[in-house]
């Protein structure tokens, strides 16, 4: 659901007279900064990112090792000692949530890097490579679009899990590949559509008339103009990837335990819901916060990058 | 338009074939066969098992055989209980479709009403309430919402059941479906709400944006200027004209609800197709995986097709080629 629509519209003022002086990107950045919700989301996400890094590599922030089991402190609620309480094995939930947060962010960004690469390639080839290639690429895209997403992610993950294929040995990498398998379609379609309409634009014609080489037209004139909607799709894609990872973890084929991921923490919390509800609330709240922030940021970016779409 | 519908329907055949082929390849790339993890059996038994399920044949032979059988509407046998795949589908499908269908209705009704109410009260209390719901709803996935709902409504308040699905195991055309005694609301509410809330929030967002857009159009001002009752303006002009962007997402949403119900099925222990699929993947139950994937791909393709045809009904300017 990458094309979620605009709910939060601050009173948008575009200062048309000013914008002549600035470039496209500076202008967009300015508009983004004006959008309070998007700005807050960006700040929170940055804070979460820093926290995830510190929480995995700095002992003072992490406080307990995510695997350390303290049998005397099982199923505790939040306290000054254990910020988020402890789980059924006496592991510190704060440390585990931070570990899961880092993995979720890695998966979210990793999937989008792969999806962006494949999507730009497929979409670009389809738009610029002539009719036959366009047909071929679009048929492949149709096919990927017809896959029931989550089911294919599950199958793909299973195929990658027990095989000793090179490169994809790390569980995180396997999960990223599995999710990207269906995740690139939206971007490919966007890029193709944008490029096709850009090809007919006057400024491309002008560049051609002035004798610019083809690569220069593509990279200098067309690519930057396709990026706006693509960036928005990428930002909306991150929470989807995080969600998919959590689903995998939830049915037991995500990151292998005892490594924590937000999905398997929610799963555990679900099992111990009657004994210690905090085990569920903190990881669930973290997922909700992540998804919320990426949605707001995506909304803000769309408003900022596409001034026509109002 | 008729020709278009037929062409699109025929196009589904190669599409399904391609989906099935990719699934077949992926499935056989998963290491370990269906009987690999069990305790060692005598070689003769193993051979008999392999022969029974065609596992002794080469990969290519299995592939050709599968599609040959498929052409004869034979989906094969599920290894686990030695039941026909078609029987497993027959058992699970009504439940999954009921769950997905009700969740879809819930999402549609709630999402559209919230979106319309929010847009008509632009920048007032109703708007903020609608936007608040739409925001929270998009942030909580179903595996987060379901345990919380269970905790509050089943465990604390005791209002609802925790396990199972309250609908009858029957298709719409069977009389059992229409007997109210076969339905138990108590064990239906939580799964439906868990599954449908995220799409409801999503639909609400889109509806709100779309209605706001339509409200600013000149023809709405004209309708009001000619003295049309506000109710008629809203129902006949605003709602109808704001349908197109909503329709665009309904196909994917319906498909996602039917194919994505396995988490909810897992949490509420509902014996639907989704749960069978997850178990089938773990058991390497090849033909069951194929059968369910094909069915799901059919749902996705049909949903997209229906929506594409509905475009023309809602917006007569759209022409089919």
Question: What do you see in this structure?
Answer:
The complex is a heterodimer of chains A (310) and B (321). Chain A has helices spanning 16-19, 24-34, 36-57, 59-62, 93-128, 131-146, 149-162, 171-183, 185-199, 202-209, 214-250, 262-271, 278-305. By secondary structure, chain A is mostly helical. Chain B has 321 residues and is mainly alpha-helical. Chain B is built from 13 helices and 2 strands. In chain B, strands 1-2 form a two-stranded antiparallel sheet. In chain B, β1 and β2 form a beta hairpin. Chain B starts with a helix and ends in a 7-residue tail after the last helix. The model of chain B has no long low-confidence stretch (mean pLDDT 83). At the A-B interface, α6, α7, α11, α12 and α13 of A face α1, α5, α6, α7 and α10 of B.
Please give the count of helices of chain B. 13
What about the largest sheet of chain B?
2 strands, antiparallel
Radius of gyration of CA atoms of chain B, rounded to a whole number: 24 Å
Beta percentage of chain A is: under 5%
Question: How many strands, which pairing sense, and closed or not: the largest β-sheet of chain A?
Answer: none
- DSSP, total strands of chain B: 2
Q: Helical amount among residues of chain A, as a percent range?
A: over 70%
Could you spell the SSE succession of chain B in H and E letters? HHHEEHHHHHHHHHH
Topology of helices and strands:
The complex is a heterodimer of chains A (310) and B (321).
Chain A: H1 16-19, H2 24-34, H3 36-57, H4 59-62, H5 93-128, H6 131-146, H7 149-162, H8 171-183, H9 185-199, H10 202-209, H11 214-250, H12 262-271, H13 278-305
Chain B: H1 2-29, H2 43-52, H3 59-71, E1 77-78, E2 83-84, H4 85-120, H5 125-139, H6 142-156, H7 189-215, H8 218-225, H9 230-241, H10 243-259, H11 262-267, H12 273-283, H13 286-314
Antiparallel strand pairs in B: 1-2
Helix pairs in contact in B: 1-13, 4-5, 4-7, 4-10, 4-13, 5-7, 6-7, 7-10, 8-9, 10-13, 12-13
